Amino acid sequence: MHFATDIWLPRPRDEVFQFFSDAANLETLTPPWLNFHILTPSIELRPGALIDYRLRLYGIPLRWQSEIVRWEPPDRFVDEQRRGPYRSWVHTHTFVEERGGTRVADTVDFEVPFGWLVGGLVMRDVRRIFAYRTATLLRLFGDTAHTEEEIRAHTIGELQPLAGPIQIDDYDPLWPELFAREAAKVGAALGSTALQVEHVGSTSVPGLAAKPIVDMLVVVADSADERSYVPALEAAGYTLRIREPEWYQHRMLKGAVEGRAVHLHVFSAGCEEISRMMHFRDWLRADDADRHLYERTKRELAQREWKHMQNYADAKTRVVEEIIARAQRSG
Questions:
Q1: What is the average pLDDT across 41-52?
Q2: To the nearest 5 percent, what fractions of the chain are helix, strand and coil?
Q3: Residues of CATH 3.30.460.10 domain(s) within the chain?
Q4: Bridging pattern class, strands 101-111 and 250-257
């Protein structure tokens, strides 16, 4: 089986490669649900270096050993599984200077026990692992503001600039009712394919002023498998507008209810972004100070001119991350 992904980071190649040269950072780049820990102390990455790990896969505790078979700083390195859950695993990391930053690419060729019987499940989890890795690299090295090129690349159909200022409305008690109506429609369209449907975003927080957009979280088995859910949602009146493979395989479909926009955000089961969105929502529902801070931030930013809605969303990132960090510290 073959998997490949890449991401551009606005940092010098030497700085990015130095981060990857520290084997301890592998734990930073690995999702928590794998319970991944490095067992080999004080590792110097070089050809022939062996690294031992402990992890938990599908609830089963496992040991994994990999060997660095190529080490060519700052261009590339390759690691191969010597002992572990796969029949074979060859991971090539490349680092290319591009546009004043670094293009980080990962290519994995692997074989799994029982072949096609479990191949689809394993590939889904490989995508999840690298989606987490990409999101972490963006938080560590990335500029949270999307470029025009990135916004266009993620948009399906015509990219339409904002026609006027951002509209922020006082809280409307009708918003939960509109969500309930749309949740029933999504449930009827997807049946058991929809593993979870939640009201998220600002309209899900009582008392919080918001753009009059009903944001919904829809969890499916594999959001990259668009054939399993997009046709049914399109038949129900939604349109696929955003595709972000590098960010947790996020998809966003647009619809409308009583003249208000509806955004369906689709993620795979187990995706870390799901818990972040829910935690953010629940914290704002409970914490008056952060709810007022978030509303004040939104109203201030809405007074500025923005070319795209994404630019406005990017500008909120710092405050959003601060609030999420407080929520997580609270438990």
A1: 92
A2: 40, 30, 30
A3: 148-330
A4: unpaired
Print burial letters for 300-324: b (CB count within 10 Å at least 16), e (below 16). Answer: ebbeeebebebbbbbbeeebeeebb
Which pLDDT score is estimated for 143?
64
CA distance 280 to 291: 10
Q: How many residues does the chain have?
A: 331
Fold of 148-330: Beta Polymerase; domain 2 (3.30.460)
**DSSP letters of 138-156?**
HHHH--SSPPHHHHHHHB-
What are residue 143's phi and psi, to 5 degrees? -90, 120
**Strand pairing category for 88-98 and 250-257:** unpaired
pLDDT digits (tens, 9 = 90+) for 221-273: 999 999 999 999 999 999 999 999 888 899 999 999 999 999 999 999 989 89
pTM, two decimal places: 0.67
Rounded-to-10 torsion of CA 136, 275, 151, 290: -100
How far CA 207 is from CA of 80, 146, 168, 172, in Å, comes to 53, 30, 13, 8
Please state, rounded to an integer, the average pLDDT across all residues of the chain: 92
With b for 16 or more beta-carbon neighbours within 10 A and e for fewer, the 126-154 pattern comes to bbbbbbbbbbbbbeebbeeebeeeebeeb
- 65, 83 in Cβ contact below 8 A? yes
> Tens of pLDDT along 181-192?
999 999 999 999
Q: Among the CATH numbers 1.10.3720.10, 3.30.530.20, 3.40.630.30, 3.40.50.1820, which is that of 2-141? A: 3.30.530.20
Tokens of 258: 């009583």
